[in-house]
Amino acid sequence: MTGETFRELTSKEIVILDGATGSNLMKAGMPRGICTEQWICENPEPLRILQKEYQKAGSQIVYAPTFSANRISLSNHGLEKEVYSLNKQLVQISRSAVGTACMVAGDLTTTGKQDVEYENLLDAYKEQITAQLEAGVDLLVAETMLGITEPMAVLDAAKELCDLPVMCTLTVESDGSLFFGGNIYDSVELLEEMGADAVGINCSTGPDQLFSVVENIRKRIKIPLIVKPNAGNPVIDETGNPVYSMGAEEFACHMKRLIDIGADLVGGCCGTTPEYVAELAKLKVSF
After folding, report:
1. Pairing relation of β-strands 103-109 and 234-236?
2. Are 182 and 148 in contact (CB under 8 A)?
3. 277 Cβ partners below 8 Å, 6+ apart?
4. Is 36 within 8 Å of 22 (Cβ atoms)?
5. 15 pairs with which residues across the strands?
6. Rounded to whole angstroms, how far apart are CA atoms 6 and 21?
7. CA distances in angstroms from 61 to 21, 111, 141, 223, 266, listed in the order given
8. pLDDT tens digits, one per residue of 179-224
9. Number of helices (H), then strands (E), in the chain
10. How far is CA 148 from CA 86, 110, 116, 219, in A?
């Protein structure tokens, strides 16, 4: 996919992304505290089933489960030498699930560390992106970023390696502040200047808490705006599992309002399922 093709797509219609991966895999039996990426490679069928359901529900882009498959995060599990193998396998699993029926995005996320030198971040993301490109991703997404430095590194790394579109989303507090300092508004402007093809927010909170944030982001950027929030705020049940408060229809109702004030690409994060994506897909009828 080229940047021009991406711009044509987002200028014509609301683009439907996928929903949560991790919370659904835990329902399918994935244990807590393990390396998610390794578990999926060893147990690919739950991911295949989930992504097939997202595609059937209306997702035009699914995120390959390459989330934390960078050398810095993988070192927490002693798997830092498996970057190439894990990324390639994970992209291939997603492709086997959806074929050419929708696009597969190579997913890159935060290392969770604020003290990593920029050059080390750049090298880690270049290594990860190289494997994803060889596996045949259609575009790249930097998501659930906690500050501005890591998505900047993703953009710089991608620029050195390819001309695929790059989407960037950060996780925010309800007032737009970022967990690693700064705010979403200045950050999206900078990422646009650096060449991001779309920017926005994911995870964070429920869509009902994001109206002001989305409205103010829209005022600061000209490129497409991504909104991929959680299914409301979770409560922890007696077994220690998070239970999300917002059903699919209510979620879609709030997302419709966010589309009305400027969201161009929409999906769901923690707690959402193919049912939520199906409700989002219904919104396209009115556009």
Report:
1. unpaired
2. yes
3. 16, 17, 18, 19, 54, 57, 58, 59, 267, 268
4. yes
5. 265
6. 24
7. 13, 24, 11, 18, 10
8. 999 999 999 999 999 999 999 999 999 999 999 999 999 999 999 9
9. 12, 10
10. 26, 10, 13, 19
The pair of three-digit structure tokens given for residue 261, joined into one six-digit string:
């004030």
Burial call 241-275: b when 16+ CB within 10 Å, e when fewer = eeebebebebbbebbbebbebbbbbbbbbbbbbbb
Name the phi and psi angles at 234, rounded to 5.
-85, 155
Residue 119, Cβ neighbours under 10 Å: how many?
9
Give dist(CA 62, CA 21) in Å, integer. 10
Q: Taken in order 24, 283, 229, 60, is the CA torsion positive or negative?
A: positive
* Cβ count within 10 A of residue 239: 6
Instruction: Encode pLDDT of 12-62 as tens digits.
Output: 999 999 999 999 999 999 999 999 999 999 999 999 999 999 999 999 999
- What's the whole-number average pLDDT of the chain? 96
In angstroms and rounded to an integer, the radius of gyration of the C-alpha atoms of the chain is: 17
